[in-house]
Amino acid sequence: MSFLRFAARRLAEMAATLFGASFVIFGAMYLAPGNPASFLLSGRSASPEALKAINAQYHLDDPFVLQYLRWTGQILHGDFGRSITYRTDVSRLLADRLPSTLLLVGMALVLVVALGLLLGWIGAVRGGAADSTILVSTTFALGTPSFVAAVLLQGLFAVKLGWFPTGGTGDGLGQMIWHLTLPAVALALYLIGMLARVTRAAMLEVLGQEHVTVARSRGVSDHKVIRRHVFRNALGTVLTTGGLIVSTLLVCTVLVESAFSVGGIGQLLELSTTTKDFPTVQAISLIMVGLFMTVNLVVDLLHPLVDPRVTLGPRRSAA
């Protein structure tokens, strides 16, 4: 199957999946207990006329199908609706908060890739005490949830030592990076351990294969064998964890942003869920699903480039 045909097929599958996900996301909010009108009234009693006016303003009294069709039509035009809690356009809320979340996720992803691959490489190649130390360290990382790491890092490096701010994002890129350093470490810790374990296991498997032994018997240096034969072949297995890594980052950023008071879309999602802000929750959830599917598509397209043994699409059986 050609690259363009495969990409077109995957894009069509993504569109169908996103359409199904949008229906689930839109409907899930209406299955939850409570009513947005009750939050708008702030617990005050209201006359039937006032309640009817609120429902009419936010189309809360329309049939479910009509509300869903109106919502999808607005999204296709780039309109995510109006926030019930903040009384402003959801698109403006996302534009104000998305940079902080993207920078946080980007910093965490750099830490995960750099340290995860490095530790996995060292553990597989050197073995001995280095491998044992890495195994113990990654076991600790895997056993530490992001919200626990956030509390520990904040208490030690922000409160006790005072090296980093306890929360917020600051002004300017330099201040944002400084404020987001501890949240990025807390967000990346678990995934560093996971990627290091995956990289180590994949490289050890390749090290035991025949073509590596043959290359070494021909006098090829260990450095070239590890780089060209072992690490490159192991990258295929490592790359398949890319979707899992990104999805975990997106989910855990809600907890980390809340712990460090980072004004990103993760914290916005938590607050909007609590206050039954339907348009905001639905927009953020749909964006996260879209990002996850985009990452999976990129991984599928890169996989044949990393590992030539992988082909795009199903193989045809020989006649």
From TrEMBL:
It comes from the Bacteria. The chain crosses the membrane at residues 12-32, 102-122, 134-157, 177-196, 234-260, 280-299. Its main location: membrane. PROSITE patterns: ABC_TM1 (PS50928). Gene3D superfamilies: MetI-like. One of its GO terms (molecular function) is dipeptide transmembrane transporter activity. Keywords: Cell membrane, Membrane, Transmembrane, Transmembrane helix, Transport. Belongs to the binding-protein-dependent transport system permease family. PANTHER family: DIPEPTIDE TRANSPORT SYSTEM PERMEASE PROTEIN DPPB-RELATED. This is ABC transporter permease. It comes from Kitasatospora indigofera.
